[in-house]
Amino acid sequence: MASKDQPNFLILGAGVIGLTTALTLRAAYPTSHITIVAKHFPGDRSIEYTSPWAGANWSSMVHDNGPLEHYDRVTFKKFAQMVDVEGKGEEVGIGRMGMWGVFDGKIEEVGVLTEETGRIWYEELVGGLEELSKEELPEGAVFGLDFKSTFRINTQVYLNWLQAQALSSHIALIRRHYPSLISLLSDFPSTTLLVNCSALGSLSLMDVRDTNLYPTRGQTVLIAEPKTPIPRMYFRSPKRIDPETTYVFPRPNGGGVILGGSRQDGNWSAEVDVQLAADIMRRCCELCPELGRPEDLQVISHNVGLRPSRKGGPRIELEKWSNGVPVVHNYGHAGAGYQSSWGTAERALELVRKALGTSSKL
Ligand SMILES: Cc1cc2nc3c(=O)[nH]c(=O)nc-3n(C[C@H](O)[C@H](O)[C@H](O)COP(=O)(O)OP(=O)(O)OC[C@H]3O[C@@H](n4cnc5c(N)ncnc54)[C@H](O)[C@@H]3O)c2cc1C
Ligand SMILES: *[C@@H]1O[C@H](CO)[C@@H](O)[C@H](O)[C@H]1NC(C)=O
Ligand SMILES: *[C@@H]1O[C@H](CO)[C@@H](O)[C@H](O)[C@H]1NC(C)=O
Ligand SMILES: *[C@@H]1O[C@H](CO)[C@@H](O)[C@H](O)[C@H]1NC(C)=O
């Protein structure tokens, strides 16, 4: 019994994007029916499911002077609302922390400036970006920035929190794998609108392969928390997006410390590369003196995840599908799914409103 006020929303995917989109729809349509269908849910650890493998932190990589910056800004403000205003950072798994970002190239060449403004767009958002002094820079680095305060996310806690929010707001969860969208929609014939948050999983949907999608393999090492707490996050990179980025990332609330990383485009391998892991640990110990020596690190797990990268950036679009059911796409967030999640969900909501013909307030 779908009506404009009581639509039946069907969401494919239960990663950070599917769950956040579902909660955003719930807030806008309190009486709607919402169902999330997915093969994987929080708690699962599979190479087909990217969300559990993220670091994760907020550290914007975009500089389009447009929608992509907007998505990251909206998400930063949502995290700030939850942590600073509502005081529920512990429960949610998000905390504030400073970060040192170190670059091996000149500022104009490393992909951090917005061309139109000649500035780093998020300077005010993170409470200021101060240049690191020569003494603070590791050997060979060209410049570094001290992000006064950004966010780090314990993805295990955060994904479970998103799922608990979904359950307590009466969003139905169904675990199933669908080989095609036709088969999905024929099982849910009263669907008013489908939201597609299937990430790389789509490459196995027979009727809808988006060949702009490709995996960017990321390998990390989870280590025990050292007795002397690490005071900040660190990254070091030849430029903002680079296969050789090194990062050290203390997670809040018992999340351990994540060491990274790698960016291997087009590589589907789920196997741990032992040599790469050793290289990551060496690079991290060089960057973060608090870690000590590589041989003293207490390794808890080696992790491999595939970022859902997409030529042309994330796809957030409305499409009328062949059998008349509108589809809102929200996929292809690459290495930024957490930090853009609330912003892209808000954009998906605008498209849902458009599809249902209710005028948008936005
Ligand atoms: C090493 C690493 C570090 C990262 N660090 C950060 C970071 O610091 N900050 C940040 O913002 N991002 C980071 N990311 C990126 C982030 O993890 C991703 O952008 C995000 O998890 C993508 O979420 P998603 O919901 O789109 O996809 P996924 O989490 O992969 O979810 C896809 C969902 O769709 C379901 N699905 C797909 N196809 C089907 C089907 N046919 N039938 C049923 N179900 C289906 C799956 O089961 C799953 O539930 C990192 C990623 C990696 C690998
Ligand atoms: C769903 O998203 C995938 C990418 O995640 C895409 O290939 C596919 O075309 C989308 N489904 C529909 C209904 O178009
Ligand atoms: C994919 O990555 C793995 C692990 O680093 C590596 O061993 C392998 O050679 C890579 N494959 C390709 C095709 O690049
Ligand atoms: C921080 O986040 C960016 C994008 O969100 C990611 O690519 C990077 O690896 C992360 N770095 C750290 C320090 O965790």
Automatic annotation (TrEMBL):
One of its GO terms (molecular function) is FAD binding. GO terms for biological process: D-amino acid catabolic process. Its cofactor is FAD. The keyword DNA repair does not apply. FAD binds at T50, S51. It comes from the Eukaryota. Residues 10-348 form the FAD dependent oxidoreductase domain. InterPro entries: D-amino_acid_oxidase_CS, DAO, FAD-dep_OxRdtase. The keyword Oxidoreductase applies. GO terms for cellular component: cytoplasm. Keywords: FAD, Flavoprotein, Oxidoreductase. D-dopa binds at Y247, R307, G335. Belongs to the DAMOX/DASOX family. PANTHER family: D-AMINO ACID OXIDASE, D-AMINO ACID OXIDASE (AFU_ORTHOLOGUE AFUA_5G11290). This is FAD dependent oxidoreductase domain-containing protein. The lineage of its organism: Eukaryota, Fungi, Dikarya, Ascomycota, Pezizomycotina.
